[in-house]
């Protein structure tokens, strides 16, 4: 890799570190190519990405970025999982690590907030952006259906009372 390629890689990594909602750092020693492809496929499904980069170049790219705190985790064979959604990359990494013990999560960052292993796990358990939107839409729609039910209920109650009175009178 020549100097120009390294500079381009540092620039690309810098953009990733700046624009990502969450970055998770993990060791991947012992993962096969097929297992790494599985991790990448899982990440693609939720609009997250997986990247292996030289630690030294990643540390250079981290300088001055909000997630600079993850530089301490960049030792050994590290892989970065990242996404704009603040939860997606953590969910992918945590789920894959649960299925495959060769991926060892070291920590990460959510903006300027440094995450340890427990922090990454906590973030992975949070609802994703899509799940939050769905629950908000459900909450907005629920009162309307309750009102419609409440308005319709007294009329049906009156109708049943009138039919009961009519049956007794007959």
UniProtKB/TrEMBL annotation:
GO terms for cellular component: large ribosomal subunit. GO terms for molecular function: large ribosomal subunit rRNA binding; structural constituent of ribosome. PROSITE patterns: RIBOSOMAL_L10 (PS01109). Keywords: Ribonucleoprotein, Ribosomal protein, RNA-binding, rRNA-binding. GO terms for biological process: translation. The keyword rRNA-binding applies. Part of the ribosomal stalk of the 50S ribosomal subunit. The N-terminus interacts with L11 and the large rRNA to form the base of the stalk. The C-terminus forms an elongated spine to which L12 dimers bind in a sequential fashion forming a multimeric L10(L12)X complex. Forms part of the ribosomal stalk, playing a central role in the interaction of the ribosome with GTP-bound translation factors. Belongs to the universal ribosomal protein uL10 family. HAMAP family: Ribosomal_uL10. This is Large ribosomal subunit protein uL10.
